[in-house]
Amino acid sequence: MYQTTYHRASSVDEAVSLFGKSSEAKFLAGGQTLLPVMKQRLASPSDVIDLGKIKELQGIELSGDTLTIKAGTIYYDIMTNADVKKAIPAIAHLTSVLGDPAVRYRGTIGGSIANNDPAADFPAALLALGATVKTNKRSISAEDFFQGLFTTALEDGEIITAVSFPVPAKAGYEKMRHPASRFALTGVFVAQTKSGEVRVAATGASQSGVMRVPAIEAALKANWSPSAIDGVSISASGLLADIHGTAEYRANLVKVMAQRAVAAAR
Amino acid sequence: MGVEGIGASVVRKEDKRFITGKGRYVDDIKLLGMTHAHFIRSPHAHAKVKGIDSSAALNMPGVVAVLTGQQIVDDKVGNLICGWAITSKDGSPMKMGAWPAMAPETVRFVGQAVAVVIAETKNLARDAAEAVVVNYEELPAVADIHAAIKSGAPQLHPEAPGNQVYDWVIGDEGATDAAFAKAANVVKLDVTNNRLAPNAMEPRAAIADYDAAEEHFTLYTTSQNPHVARLVLSAFYNIAPEHKLRVIAPDVGGGFGSKIFIYPEEMVALWASKKVGRPVKWTGDRTEAFLTDAHGRDHVTHAEMAFDAQNKILGLKVKTYANFGAYMSLFSSSVPTYLYATLLSGQYNIPAIHAEVVGVYTNTTPVDAYRGAGRPEASYLIERLMETAARQLKVDPAQLRRSNFITQFPHQTPVIMAYDTGDFNASLDAAMKAIDYAGFPARKAQAKSQGKLRGIGVSCYIEACGIAPSKAVGSLGAGVGLWESAEVRVNPVGTIEILTGSHSHGQGHETTFCQLVAERLGVPISQVSIVHGDTDKVQFGMGTYGSRSAAVGLTAILKAMEKMEAKAKKIAAHALEASEADIVIENGEFKVTGTDKAIALPMVALAAYTAHNLPDGMEPGLKESAFYDPTNFTFPAGTYICELEVDPGTGKTSFVNFVAADDFGRLINPMIVEGQVHGGLVQGIGQALLEHAIYDANGQPVTASFMDYAMPRADDVPSFNLSHTTTLCPGNPLGIKGCGEAGAIGASAAVINAITDAIGKNNLEMPATPDRVWRTIHAA
User: What is the pLDDT of residue B780?
Assistant: First the structure.
């Protein structure tokens, strides 16, 4: 790790102010990506601004048909939260299969979506559920927020404060774990909104990051059941390929994981 | 004898310090004035080093020195050696290129060091290393065995034309051809044994401390065999004569073979310590471990097995290409030859065997012994062949094995080994019973009704362990003797120190070796301590690998104990005014048999050291040593059976059951044996399902971190069902065969045999990743 200056912000305003004073600052959430990358000397921020102790970034609220998770909430707290389990059990499940116990005790929802790793789990949930990302400046729809590999709509110094999820009628998430990293080799989140809309998002599959899967959405719109997807064909074109999964395999996983997510949806 | 003797599952003495974080590893050691080394490593798989500009780095804060490959060559530090000479079939010696500790002219794999920065801290050394400018001229590289042996392939070493190290043969080719000529059926198989990275929990590390006044070096290092390290550093690398070099291997966090070898980093640390006049420390990080720890396996093999009309094996033909990487590591040459092809008879009567092994250079990390070393490759090949044969001949795979088992011992195979004892039917029976083999078809049908593909796979392995006797390994080309030594010191107050040439880096010697003393003397193990891992304390030793510490190392302790006991009995008899022949040792006392006359061990020891009243002519003291050289290898064997399910939608494998029935001879501590088997099985399963060290076509490593290289985790493996069938090894007085490698040797074939059974397709390479299994299921 290169030398850096560590700051612990006590409020979002203070974090923003610290960011403005620094030449090359990075916000630190759970540190599950930033710290390993810094240790490998692949990132060298002049200043690291820790958001982990900011009280206003902590907590989960269920209000009517909206579940709001503050950005600094760690996965473990999401996984075990009664409101999450009641309102959107698929999110509790997603969090329970995310990384390993050490990651779940450190990693945060805000950190995950700000990083937008193409194999991260949470972007699929946000996209499928039509969530809204709240920042210190504005509200951004999930659709607009994720803009490709490791790219988001966030501007310099902008801080995610919370994610609001409309409570769906049904939702499910299933993933094939990457055998080494335990990210999603491919994961699919399916959701049926209370107005009857069907949204399906896949992570770990596309070279462009998290994506909607219109063919599966159409099939499920007509018939919400795993067998409805039997006849759907997913193209391998544009999908990721690496030593743990060919593009064809990932195309298969999009379909199989969608079927299993529908079967598991509640 | 007693609750802490042989056969007792005594809790490990050493675990208190490991569990409470009090272990003392090389990186925990800090010396006064210590500097830190950071190596500058090649980013290219093959390149000329055209120049190194360290002027900017030398002006950076805290930099003590920047030393290069040319300087280490100029100072006449020796090139790395390969300690086992192999002769090709044409009679020529193996062909090797030079391997300097840092490359002065040419780099041949990614990660090979070209220079080292010595600085006040690790971070300052790393900062300065980024300012050293190395000018490389890239050369074409080759990483794959098949590509390396093609004409026109990039050539690594002028000494080895065609990138061929040797072309070695074993067995009787004429007899094998004759056997195939009369065969009713021939079974053919091509298999790849995937390259693995060893990944001990503790990365390699070294601290070198040169004392200019005494012209003496001390090296703290992560070694499985500190005396061998001293020998090689002295005799071949010109570091210092043996009496001016002390090598200490303190607590070492796992080796699996990778810490047998003497690596460039230790050599450079020693040399640099003298150059800068201060201690030099190097601790590798995980990426350096992936790049520079000797890898394992990496064979490509074609094999054919001939059967008669009654399904009896007539003969076996094998041709194997072994990837050695860019240089010949210390014992690399022996792994695909004498540690591999000599086990090709497996557990079976095979009248004729012929094997040819071609050793190949590629632009990859050097390959050497890794848990099992050659024997996993042999066992995997034979057990995949037997399964393939059973499918082709349409017979039950267990029955095909049974009908070809060796049942008479000793048994001379056509490939050097003389199996001393065993009962292969017993372990097969035990494993089949444990897994309810007969009930499998019903379970398979049940699984099918739930959309799962269930399979069962058998693996009957045999291995040769102990890696001894010296005369035998010497005749096969080994550069060292492979005995072991021990010393028993009884202190004047009766406590006991055992000095051993074996080295514990996870095996539990500090407990098991004490159990032998408890067994013989009836003293609690708390009164015994084990001293190992320091060339100044232990006179000599060959170290720990090849499942040899109990069979060879513990037997050396037994021999020293017997000498000590004989002397102690003389002292006791003298004190008790009894005949020496009437003295027996029980519960820490020397007793006159049939009487109540006794003298306690501490009193005997005190008498030995006060020497006030010893038998006439007896030397004072109570300390004896012994060297033990066995008469044969030992032959642990057993049967593993794996039952699993494959998810046809994803290709993912889930274990249902895994049973292991091993014959290790006598067990000293069954709990520790169980742990050894668990660890071995996990490594075997890791190879079968997850692990693969991969290079791209240009020799760039693709798997240099745990984000890409899939190490098995606890939830990747099943709970194991272990049992033992025992035939005592006749080759050593304790009847021990060894248990350290069996799991890694036998497990992978059981897994692949089960998956291929489940999916109904025979050809499937390791690792059987979900992607690969899914594609195999759906292949036309």
Answer: 76
